[in-house]
């Protein structure tokens, strides 16, 4: 039986995914986490066979959590299950160490197969994601989309800005100095040809990096 750590900040989503996993017989959820820091702590505690985690989590996002987990155990087997389309994050997460990427829209029917594949140490991508990821990983620097010009840290800063976080809050969440956050923000503005935080927000919403607040339209 595959032992699974499930990390997602939504309790209802965790409950639903846990039900799918255990009803399918593919494995058992031995630990749960509601943020990236808890995910890392629970990984160290239970050493699961597979980690199933979301990208958008508080305190430490999925990308950062993967990096830390891989430092603890370079053979960790991680499957990303998220609402974000493959175009936004898949290549970055696979480069960070994840073995699989499944969007929640189609994930429920393929999740057991994805977990089984990742547990065997093999990569799992839904068919529609394979070409997208291959093109992103082979992209020439001068021909990449604006978002792909951002470093992982710059992308994290852009997402936190779009979520309404202040510079000091971003520095605390990412564990970097305020000066460094300002530097990353400046590079984000330059790479996106943006002039303000509002334009960074517009970019993030348009690319589905964060949900558009109901009261706002962009």
Task: Summarize the entry for a quick read.
It is built from ten helices and six strands; from the N terminus they run βαβαβαβαβαβααααα. The protein is an alpha/beta fold and 218 residues long.
Describe it for me?
With 218 residues, the protein is an alpha/beta fold. It folds into 2 domains: 2-138, 3-Layer(aba) Sandwich (Rossmann fold); 146-206, Winged helix-like DNA-binding domain superfamily/Winged helix DNA-binding domain (Arc Repressor Mutant, subunit A, Orthogonal Bundle), CATH 1.10.10. It has 10 helices and 6 strands; from the N terminus they run E-H-E-H-E-H-E-H-E-H-E-H-H-H-H-H. It has helices at 11-24, 36-46, 62-72, 86-96, 104-119, 127-138, 152-162, 167-174, 178-192, 197-206; strands spanning 2-7, 27-33, 50-53, 78-82, 100-103, 124-125. It has a 6-stranded parallel β-sheet with strand order 2-1-3-4-5-6, sandwiched between helices. Helix 7 packs across helix 10 (197-206). The longest helix is centred in the middle third of the chain and has 16 residues, at 104-119. The protein is globular. The N and C termini lie far apart (47 Å). The model is unreliable at 138-142 and 214-218 (pLDDT under 50).
**CATH first level of the largest domain:** Alpha Beta
Structural Rg: 17 Å
Determine the N-to-C terminus distance.
Answer: 47 Å
Total of domains = 2
Quick one: overall form? globular
Helix proportion range: 40-55%
Fraction of residues in β-strands: 5-15%
Order of helices and strands: EHEHEHEHEHEHHHHH
How many H/I helical runs? 10
Uncertain parts: 138-142, 214-218
Mind telling me which CATH architecture of the largest domain this is? Answer: 3-Layer(aba) Sandwich
Structural class: alpha/beta
On the 0 to 100 scale, the average pLDDT is 84
Reported by name, the CATH topology of the largest domain is Rossmann fold
Oligomer: single chain
């Amino acid at each position: 039986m595959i032992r699974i750590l499930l990390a997602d900040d939504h309790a209802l989503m965790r409950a639903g995914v846990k039900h799918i996993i255990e009803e399918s017989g593919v494995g058992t959820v031995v630990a749960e986490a509601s943020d990236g820091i808890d995910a890392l702590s629970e990984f160290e505690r239970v050493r699961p066979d597979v980690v199933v985690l979301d990208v958008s989590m508080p305190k430490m996002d999925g990308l950062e959590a993967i990096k830390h987990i891989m430092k603890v155990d370079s053979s960790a087997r991680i499957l990303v299950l998220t609402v974000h389309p493959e175009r936004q994050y898949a290549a970055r997460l696979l480069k960070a160490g994840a073995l699989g990427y499944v969007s929640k829209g189609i994930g429920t029917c393929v999740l057991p197969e994805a977990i089984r594949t990742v547990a065997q140490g093999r990569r799992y991508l839904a068919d529609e994601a394979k070409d997208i990821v291959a093109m992103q990983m082979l992209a020439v620097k001068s021909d990449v989309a604006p978002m792909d010009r951002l470093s992982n840290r710059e992308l994290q800063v852009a997402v936190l800005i779009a979520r309404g976080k202040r510079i000091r809050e971003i520095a605390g969440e990412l564990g970097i100095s305020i000066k460094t956050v300002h530097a990353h923000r400046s590079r984000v503005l330059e790479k996106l040809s943006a002039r303000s935080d509002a334009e960074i927000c517009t970019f993030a919403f348009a690319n589905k990096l964060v949900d558009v607040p109901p009261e706002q339209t962009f």
